[in-house]
Design brief:
By secondary structure, this protein is of the alpha/beta class. It has helices at about 30-35, 100-110, and strands spanning about 5-15, 45-50, 55, 65-70, 80, 90.
Length: about 110
């Protein structure tokens, strides 16, 4: 039996994110975020499917990493309150190059 500490991940995304529902023609993101990532026994992923606004203060002292669906907004809540006040590293899927301006704005705000 392995006694290694498990990494606790808070996964934030918009609840109606078509890429994470499992029925989109492009299921690459679904398979990675919703299936394969969770097969690693050294991590625990907790989903936070959100609406337009997510209050990140509920994550304080409970998670090791915040994982964002992406950093440009599509499929993400419009606002994540208090994420900059947490001392938790933020990892995000990068945006497509066409979304670079939106991604940079959110990257500074969320990461």
């Amino acid at each position: 039996m392995n006694n290694m500490k498990k990494i606790k991940i808070a996964f934030i995304y918009k609840e109606n994110n078509v890429f994470l529902l499992g029925n989109h023609f492009d299921n690459t993101y679904f398979h990675f975020f919703m299936e394969e990532l969770r097969k690693d026994e050294s991590i625990i992923v907790t989903d936070f499917p959100t609406k337009e606004i997510f209050d990140a203060s509920i994550l304080k002292n409970k998670f090791d990493i915040i994982l964002l669906w992406n950093n440009y907004g599509g499929g993400m809540p419009n606002e994540i309150l208090g994420i900059e006040d947490l001392k938790i590293p933020v990892i995000s899927n990068c945006a497509d190059p066409v979304e670079a301006k939106k991604a940079i704005k959110n990257h500074k705000k969320w990461d």
